[in-house]
Amino acid sequence: MKRFLLAASVIALAAAATPVSAETVRWARSGDALTLDPHSQNQGVTHTFNHHIYETLLDRDSEGTLQGRLATEWKVKEGDPTVWVFTLRQGVTFHDGAAFTAEDVVFSLDRARSEKSNMKQLHADVESVTAVDDYTVEVKMKGPSPLYPNNLTNTFMMDKTWAETNDVVEVQDFGAGEDNYAVRNTNGTGPYKLVSRDPDVRSVLALNENHWAETKPAVTEIIYLPIAEAATRVAALLSGEVDIVQDVPVQDIERLAGTSGIKVETGPENRVIYFGYKFGEEPLKSSNVTDKNPFNDPKVREAMELAIDREAIKRVVMRGQSIPTGVPTPPFVNGWTPELDAYPATNVEAAKSLLADAGYPDGFTVTLDTPNNRYVNDEAISQAVVGMLGQIGIKVTLASRPIAQHSPVIINNESDFYLLGWGVPTFDSAYIFNDLVHTKEGHYGAYNVGLYSNPELDAKIESLGTEVDLEKRDATIAEIWEVVKGDRVLLPIHNQVLAYAMKDNITLEVHPENQPRIYTVTFD
Amino acid sequence: MLSFILKRLVQSVVVMLVVALIAFMLFRYVGDPVASMLGQESRIQDHDALRERLGLNDPFYVQFANFISNAVRGEFGISYRLQQPVSELIASRLPATIELAFASALMALVIGVTLGVMSALKPRSIATALVMTLSLVGVSLPTFLIGIGLIYVFAVELQWLPSFGRGAVVDLGWWKTGLLTESGLRSLILPAITLSLFQLTLIMRLVRAEMLEVLRQDYIKFARARGLSARTINFGHALKNTLVPVITITGLQLGSVIAFAIVTETVFQWPGVGSLFVNSVQVVDVPVMAAYLMFIAFVFVVINLIVDILYYVVDPRLRIGRAAQ
């Protein structure tokens, strides 16, 4: 028996050591794409997968810089600042052989703007899209929109004829009670074609031999394997059953990096983690201070910032995998500066005296709402902050919920004190100001949970949307940041760091939007 | 007989309705599906519009009535998460769960009975003490830990078996089976062990207790006195008489194995209905959750119905009692 076991283990090891065909990559992450309909969901995992099958007019490289993909050139029309002109790449074909032309772009942008599309918010300022000739498209905006191209990096191009033939002109309607053809079938221009798909289980993509790019990807076949359980995902890499693992738990990074045959690539993500609090005179719902709102006092907000030890959070909670920051914007974003990013050193004594000055020598109580399954170690960050604020007498009760239950609390402004993360897909500060800083009204301030309101800032924020003079615009952004940081509108903690683990003969760069592109993989 | 079955059927329908009602009441506390469907870019008015389209603004009883009337026709709507018909999703995931459940039930039965008989026949041997102690450990460790432990030992360290998934499957048209391929069978081993461990312990202890009881009976003594071989006595007479409760328990437990495969399926990324349910809970995919709970209720109801009918057939007292009324 012993000999048999030995023999069996030798055979098993030999089988495991046999190199997989260098061209196939087995790629595991925690979740599956929700749909293949490119305009139905505005969600990172879905976009990441679809970027391999469909293509966008513009794209970002791993530095976050805007680059042409299906568009070769984009500029504001001379004489009319409200029109963007896109010149399309020639000689591009869809997987079914149809040529990619301007009418497909018009169709796709119209579809992305349609009522049931989840991409429509990014195209809210578009008035009309027209084809000038086969390879030129004009997008007429409702007003000057100098940053519209930033919104195009996840809007995929579909074939008009294919969509009409298969009755998918409209985006999937959840309420309709039936699924449409585009949810499970694709016809893109991308470097890979869909071979098979079993949602939540396994999807296979094969190289599109007719892709326009001159250099062919090194990977000829992608096997995409969602593995929900983190420990199993890591085990699958250790046992050699997968080649690339995304969503690596921070506590496993060190161990994986120390394992022979495996390497871990880390890089900053375009996502900041911050705390927010309620502004206004009205007393907090969850506090023992019932006659006023302690958060409304700038001294209290300063005391909280001084009490929080960002470096300790990085060291203990994040195991070194975070970039502490003093401004609620990731460094990729236009408007970020090292000066803004600086944060004060922790000083518990100064914090205590500030709190006493503000009239709370014994502190106060408040409830902190935190998600526990959305961001990296979100609940643990909140627990750490509970302890840190406890040191200066602010007694925090933690209310921890899954994101599905945390979201309604946030969106309905029901929280006094909360943790949230914010990604900036446009790579521009205006995106942060619009949703987090502007007074909550109409299209603005959707996630201004603390109901901060500064009419002077509101006017400046609104001007960013239409300012064509980019230098002047950047100056306004700087002015706004100064007030936002000075007022401590939000309490930023850190920028998240992404980690991809892979076999050590593979190189895959970390993408700031956590959208790794397998067609950029190289082998040693 | 017919009236008995009819009565039981009516009771079953009531049970299903109550399950549906409780499930529906719980869904109000699991969170807002719209928030996870629309994401960060969306506006409050988009949320309201989608909620209206999904019928989430209707009063509770209207939603419930709609759900029931659709469910009766076998329609459970579209999954919010995967945007595919729910009935189709569950049907495509069911073979994986059923194969896993049956494999683990079989494993539990065979190993459990064997070990149970052994430990009853040699109650004082070291092997028995060892098995009994180990079984205590097995029953007290959470399924999750057992699964991760097995993955670590057999997939990562020894690399004998796959750590996740179902391997290659063969499509028979109406059933995708993993039992016909080598990788499918290899993939089945670890999850089946994990899922069977609890039942195995249960069966083993049940067989042991019953067997010890039976071995003390007079007819066993007489059988010995007649000079029958130990083998005939132990297996022909003693074991046979211990099996009735074992079969009942195993049958009833099969329902629980299907229902509680959730943790095992999650740990091993086994593509069954349990992992579908877990993924759905996280994003409040109400149509899938509702259909899954109804399905599990249905499984229990059917198994109980069959057991009840069997009892009726087997036990004459039930029939006489009815006739006398």
Description:
The complex is a heterodimer of chains A (524) and B (325). With 524 residues, chain A is of the alpha+beta class. Among the domains of chain A are: 118 residues, Dipeptide-binding Protein, domain 1; 230 residues, Dipeptide-binding Protein, domain 3 (Roll), CATH 3.10.105.10. Helix content of chain A is 28%, strand content 22%. Chain A contains 15 helices and 19 strands. In chain A, the strands form 5 sheets. In chain A, strands 1, 8, 9, 10, 11, 12, 13, 16 and 17 form a 9-stranded mixed β-sheet that branches. In chain A, helix 14 packs antiparallel against helix 15. Chain B is mainly alpha-helical. Chain B has 2 domains: 71 residues, no CATH class; 232 residues, MetI-like fold (Orthogonal Bundle), CATH 1.10.3720. Helices cover 76% and strands 1% of the residues of chain B. Chain B has a two-stranded antiparallel ribbon. In chain B, strand 1 and strand 2 form a beta hairpin. Chain B is globular, with a radius of gyration of 24 Å. The chains are: A alpha+beta (524), B mainly alpha (325). Chains A and B meet through helix 1, helix 5 and helix 12 of A and helix 2, helix 3, helix 7 and helix 12 of B.
How are the SSEs placed, and which strands pair?
The complex is a heterodimer of chains A (524) and B (325).
Chain A (H helix, E strand, L loop, with lengths): L1 H16 L6 E6 L14 H7 L7 E3 L5 E3 L2 E6 L6 E6 L13 H12 L12 E8 L2 E6 L18 H6 L26 E7 L3 E6 L13 E6 L3 H9 L5 E2 L4 H8 L4 E16 L20 H10 L2 H8 L4 E3 L13 H4 L6 H10 L7 E7 L6 H13 L4 E7 L1 H9 L5 E7 L5 H9 L17 H10 L5 H18 L3 E13 L2 E2 L14 E2 L1
Chain B lengths: L1 H26 L5 H6 L5 H11 L5 H13 L13 H36 L4 H15 L2 H15 L12 E2 L4 E2 L4 H34 L2 H8 L4 H30 L2 H6 L5 H10 L3 H29 L1 H9 L1
Helix pairs in contact in B: 1-13, 5-6, 5-8, 5-10, 6-8, 7-8, 8-10, 10-13, 12-13, 13-14
